[in-house]
Please model this.
Amino acid sequence: MTKPQFGLDDDALAGQPTVYRPGLFADRVVLISGAGSGIGKAIAFLFARLGAKLAICGRDLEKLQATAPRLRELGSPDVFVQSMTIRDPEQVDALMDAVWTHFGQLDVLVNNAGGQFPKAAIELSGNGWRAVVDTNLNGTWYMMQAAAKRWRDHGQPGNIVNIVLPIDRGTPGAAHTGAARAGVIYLAKTVAVEWAPYDIRVNCVAPGTIESSGFQYYPPAAVERFRYSNPMKRTGSVHDIAEAVVYLAAPSGKFVNGETLIVDGGSVLWGDLWVTEKPDYFKV
Amino acid sequence: MTKPQFGLDDDALAGQPTVYRPGLFADRVVLVSGAGSGIGKAIAFLFARLGAKLAICGRDPEKLQATAPKLRELGSPDVFVQSMTIRDPEQVDALMDAVWAHFGQLDVLVNNAGGQFPQAAIDYSVKGWNAVVDTNLNGSWYMMQAAAKRWRDHGQPGNIVNIVATFQRGMPGVGHTGAARAAVTYLSKTVAVEWAPYRIRVNCVAPGAIESTGFRVYPPEAVKTFGQANPMKRTGSVHDIAEAVVYVAAPSGKFITGQLLTVDGGGVLWGDVWPTGKPDYFKV
Amino acid sequence: MSENNKPAFGLTDEALSAMPTVYRSDLFAGQTVLVSGAGSGIGKAIAFLFARLGAKLAICGRDPEKLEQTAAWLRKLGSPDVYVRPMTIRDPEQVDALMDAVWAHFGKLDILVNNAGGQYPQAAIDFTVKGWNAVIDTNVNGSWYMMQSAARHWRDHGQPGSIVNIVAVFERGLPGIAHTCAARAAVTYASKTVAVEWAPYRIRVNCVAPGTIESTGFRQYPPEAVKNFKNSNPMKRTGDVQDIAEAVVYLAGPSGKFITGELLLVDGGGVLWGDAWPTGKPDYFKV
Model:
């Protein structure tokens, strides 16, 4: 296998040291969207190593099928694969039905699927705007609600972790996704309250500049700058995000609800992230 | 009069256009701390132009005595002056007693007095740290509580506006004041709730890089960058802060309490302020 | 609207037009302001205040009758020129046509107030896909089309601009209206992003978040929920539409010239204490 241009290859990822104890997710079922690559795959790898049964979904069946045997190797006793898009509420319902049919339960839903493209806001097309809002905000909502309904109807407790972005200072060069992720963050806070009676916790993890295969979608000059966008002056690893998700999903997070955990090396405090080429005006 | 090195001279300040109607504060009494210079003087000037009776305090009697006749000229029907330090709770009590003895009422308290010196946090002395926390946090608190007690005891509604700073991203180079201003802001949120039964509103205004005589305490190379530290790429005016204070203090703000109004040209979103001068490490 | 026709909630037009204001009467002389959703409630209050301060006005909304009634008032209140355009912000082509028409009519725009929007109370677990999408489309996409279209016109004409978006107090979530919570948060953070991106074009972008403001909009909530609204903030009262209008003027006008990317809450402190529950409070939360 050739080394990827960005991020960790599968072996390196599988060998990342973890703070968590083996067996932490024994007999637990975790569903991860967008698990075929990048951060989603890292999350799936870690849950597998901790003994979870896994359901993974995503749009690219090949990538999922390549990931599934690795998850079994790493220790997951049961891996269920379904290719689908979260943008279609009927496919979301079908996925959830399939998960409950297969496992009889779901313990943790990790909404990792999502995406965007860098573009100056003034140049965004209507279609481009809507596509990003539809995937990241609507798609995530369909998943959240479909899981919540089933937890309520089965009388089972639930646990949702949404992967978002640090939005605190806006997201210049990616206004569409900043808007969508803000929507998800505050939606999570709302249903953290509304769904507390059903014993469902809802939290978010906001990764800063995390080196992953996703870097290939950005201009090389922007990527070069990414590591200067936080006071640590380096990028994070997909494994940092996986460990944050586990923290919230595991009993360690059992009193955390409605929270957004930012894993960004401090970039909301200092640093300048332009996912497009940086406009001259801002070169100071 | 010689032109000041930074900010507006008295005539320029008095001639700033205002959005507010004349007479807005007729028969109202406003107490402004630190009114002898900079932002505090600008606040006092605007309230005077809008017809308010004024009480001004500060440590330097000469500056206050120079400010008072200007306030009368600008339209304040009654100006009361008391030199004191907010760091001494007994002097604060004496000030409040004097205000009530003189005017029989107080409508608005503007806690503007405060200050800091730029220094790397690792080099703070205990004395330097304590001085900044004592003035900005303890001093503001003595003023807030002393006013609130009298409002409660006289059955009068009250209104507090605290001048703080843009601490949202931390304040490298002035960490002590960042801590103290955050403390004042969240204290304000707390008593906005606790004191709502007494009909006391409590809000804060956070000035970003506002050009004033206060710029003199910073190294010239730092001052040069202040106008680049927000997306508007300019400094604000002390009058911008005065108009913000009036907005929240006046009936326009009658449904606002516990709020922090940031007036910083967007500096919390983009830009880099280093009051100590930017360390090489952060030159990226 | 006469006294015997008093609205169930909020102010009559007469009462609204007579609300005291802190601003000087010629503040917006020579300026053009576009207000969406200006036919009722908060939008109408914003348009009224700008008219009283001398602004030329463009107003849009879906209901032509309401807009015409508002326009007559705006002229009476002192607006030297009122342009009316019924349309929906959900259609980007109608938005572009609106902006073209505003520029054709006035030659410029100084201030855009994105007030149009809306929601209905429902437990999130019962939302339909259609209901969710409608709220997202109006509040997020519609506001975006308006922002971007105005910004493009400002850039192309080399004119500075100022945008104020009316959102909601979403910081603690909004149980009972989860869709609008997501949508308003999205608009707020889009505003923060473009406050930076569009600073080179001298465009300021800010938001105002009204708490429980008594307006005709109260009619869509169950009476038992409305009864509790005044207890949803530490002041234990509702705000009025004029509170929001004055906040918009403060940010849009020269008073706000050093403010961009800001979210101004006008909520009586509701974000700190209180419990709104537009659907009525579920038993679980009666503590």
Summary: Chain B has one domain: 10-14+22-282. The helical segments of chain B are 10-14, 38-49, 61-74, 89-103, 126-154, 175-194, 220-226, 238-249. The CA atoms of residues 83 and 255 of chain B lie 33 Å apart.
